[in-house]
Amino acid sequence: MEKNDNSKKTYEAIIDSIKTYIMNGKIKAGQKLPPERELAKKFNVSRTSIREALRTLEILGAIKSVQGSGNYITGDFEKSLIESMSMMFLLQQIDSLEFYQFREALELKAAMLAVRNIDDEKIRKLEEILAEMARSEDEATRSALDKQLHETIAAASKNSMIIQILNILSEVISQDIKQRRSEILSDPRNINRLQKIHEEMVFSLKQRDAQATYAAFTKHFDIIAEYIRTNENNQINNQINNLYNENS
Amino acid sequence: MEKNDNSKKTYEAIIDSIKTYIMNGKIKAGQKLPPERELAKKFNVSRTSIREALRTLEILGAIKSVQGSGNYITGDFEKSLIESMSMMFLLQQIDSLEFYQFREALELKAAMLAVRNIDDEKIRKLEEILAEMARSEDEATRSALDKQLHETIAAASKNSMIIQILNILSEVISQDIKQRRSEILSDPRNINRLQKIHEEMVFSLKQRDAQATYAAFTKHFDIIAEYIRTNENNQINNQINNLYNENS
DNA sequence: CACCTAAATTGGTTATACCAATTTTGCTAA
DNA sequence: TTAGCAAAATTGGTATAACCAATTTAGGTG
Fold first, then answer.
1. CB contact under 8 A, A60 and B87
2. Cβ atoms of B88 and B148 closer than 8 Å
3. Average pLDDT, stretch B89-110?
4. So what's the pLDDT on residue B194?
């Protein structure tokens, strides 16, 4: 059997074909692909090659295979990005500080967009969270509320891409974030400091004051950065390693 | 043959195993994995499953398969992220404005980091680019210099993750960026405006003045945003579609 | 020692068979 | 007729075995 392409491996050619298939709108999200055996016939290759192509499409988040049912077009790319970024850390030894700076970039932009786009309901929600944080006793509650606060602000940006990537980043370093959050939030000296800054952040958003919002968020980041710098050797990779070592 | 895991498919389990293999440092970047037939024996599964796992690792950028030679650990995740993000656009209809806001987030952070980290040599380079831009006649040259300017600033941030992601973003929307850059840079009213802002950007970096840098970059973004808003219907997807339709 | 060729190694692909989950079909009973 | 259930068909998941194609290795030759 002749190959579809001189240079490309068969499964790569198949991927492109199926991609084009999807992009041209012949198949829309949610729809089912033809059965593997049929695809094999149609593309005139073995089912194995079809499956290798489908595997990569699956890892890219383009499709989802369901045994006994079929291969469905999806749009779930978060998983794929999470995988990629995780691997990126694993092999490139990107340190925590760099990672958090990346995250800060998005959080800050989200905040600046929120200044323009936030509505009164979200403001109320933020104020509620703040109030709960103030009267929370245990570190676990504070940690959960802290997470909620940041997510609410991100959502107020109304930029779905930034929201999605922030979610992904949280996933990638959830272990790391959790640990650090609890570290930082369990230090009694920080509790008040952070509470104040959180209040500043929300207040400046309420006032739709861009400059104050920028200042408040920057201050917030500085506290985090301070913590990370003191544990410079604590590479994020260690955390991620633990994630995977479970199933070795 | 019993499956390695109750819930996971075999090839997924294999992926995890090989990942762990990599993470534990048993295999470092550049090294060769054991042959597929050997891996199959070691993991007690078929070569088929091994290969499906290797395909996904390849698409993730973790390995590279070379026929006749072997599977090598690499660290080339850009390709994978580009793929993921491209697909993200294709199926999710993220519009240009959102995308550029995402980009701005990283550019701004890069600039703010550059304020702290930039050295005199990079400053000189930026000034040279500015000078060239001032005396450039054609739009193509200005466009190339503009790109160079932004890349140099990004590099000055010294945050490899931000630099990488910015590169990836450029790749993903290179068509779009090129088109808009030339649109914006070909309008005679903008040439002077942009030249001034670029000078502000570089000058504020030279002064290591964070506030001024922030102001300059924000002003720069506003010009871009202004342009994009007036062409709101111009979805980025169109550009990317064209990228792929070639091989249909 | 350098070079070339043949053999061995290793990834790429195909074909077939069977397992496992889901879906469909069609019968049975209420 | 219809609701429910069980068998059959469909469809993805895995395993073997065989062969192709590129690379690497080994061995021999000049």
1. yes
2. no
3. 83
4. 86
Q: How far apart are CA A210 and CA A112, in angstroms?
A: 6
Distance of CA B40 to the CA centre of its chain: 35
For chain A, strand residue ranges (E) read 63-66, 70-73
Closest residue in A to B8 (Cα–Cα): A247
**Distance (Å) from the alpha carbon of B159 to chain A's nearest alpha carbon:** 6
Who among A51, A60, A91 is closest to B83 (CB)?
A60
pTM for this prediction: 0.75
In B, which residues are within 8 Å of A90 by CB distance?
Answer: 19, 22-23
Q: How far is CA B28 from CA A149, A236, B24, in A?
A: 40, 18, 9
Coil, strand or helix at A44: coil
Grouping H, G, I as helix, E, B as strand and the rest as coil, residue A70 is strand
* Contacts made by residues A136-141, CB under 8 angstroms, sequence distance 24+: A139/A182, A139/A185, A139/A186, A140/A182
Place of tokens 């190339």: B144
pLDDT at A137: 81
Structure tokens at A116: 């323009």
Residue with tokens 């470092």, as numbered in its chain: B28
pLDDT at A76 over 60: yes
Q: Which residue has the tokens 């400059």?
A: A211
Q: Which residues contact B26 (CB under 8 A, 6 or more apart)?
A: none
**Neighbouring C-alpha atoms within 13 Å toward the C-beta of B145:** 23
Per the structure block, which two tokens stand in for A177? 């974030």
